[in-house]
Amino acid sequence: MKILFEPLGGALGIGAITRCLAMAQAAVMRGHQVAFLAPEGYPLMDELALGPRFPAPAPVRPPELVGTGEADGFTEAVLIRGMAQPDYADRAIAAELDAYRTFAPDIVVTEMQPTVPIAAHLTGIPFACTISSPNLSLFTGPPRSPGRLEEVEATYASLCERHGLPPMPLEELLHHRAALNIAPTAEILEPALGAVPRTRYVGPVLFPSLELAPAPSYPAGTTRILVYLSFGAVKLAEFLPVVGKAFPGPEFSVVVAAREPSVAGRAVPFQQDNIVVAPTPGMTRLLSDTDLLITRGGQNALMAALLAGVPVIGTPGRSPEPIYNLGTLQAHGAARTLLDEPTADDLVQAAHALLDGKAARRAARLGDLLRRHGGATEAVQALEETVLHRTPAPTP
To answer: Is the pTM of this model over 0.90?
Structure first.
């Protein structure tokens, strides 16, 4: 089987990319051919020769929307990422048609790229799409710029009509036309996804070579804190002294996972008192020896924490997606969410509530439920079944 992977063209973090890479790696291990369609400069993709690479246009974020933070729903995400511009959509579809016809995949797998359903319709190739609750209208709050969101929907409705599809909301375009919706989670964490047609829960889709990369070790006899913020409103340079005040040595040892080459003017890696700042260490490896994770609340980081049985302090700023993710864990007693920019006292109080052993046991129980699924391998098995039993995409 030939599978083409297409992460979101305007991805701001690496979650969309690593999930595609994890599934591609599992597909290769099962004897399939894979290829990728993504803009130049995407991290990790150029480093792995899993299959041919096809170029895709990179959207340009509207200057007035740069720095506005994460989106409240998928339609706003398309707007913020510059993917609502008609010229971008036309170029994206053209790149997709070229890649689809050249590679001739049996199925396309996308992380929410909104032009894929149109290109798939034009070529007759089925597609699968990853799915998460915060991107569903059920969990979308009131739009901050309703007029701008209407423009997004109008752009894609026009594209649909021009290419022989009935106009429909983006959510329906992606998930109701998909031959398979891949949910990289478990039913207990995102039960609403089960109501979407053709959804398959596969559990965490983590990229092994990144998760198990080398990692520093903690000193013995300390309470071990791991900090991983990723993209978001809380900036590492400003947050570092807050963490140092909340978790001083010698009682605590702190490892900070930094994606930036420098933090607060210092080249990474470096050590500051009891804090080690390391360049993107292996998260799964580190979490196996960690007592508490402080993170923005991205899906991959939270899945890895649950698998390791590590409770979480969430620092999502005001971003709806991590707030939703963390809220679910908090409801299960495995996390505390601190909005905006947490103070040292906020961190101390949250840590005191989570380091009693009960939160770790609750996190571990959720991790056991996640482990019932097969992750990237189960996702590929679902793709195999979809192609084997392929039926035409439904007409709304």
So the answer is: yes
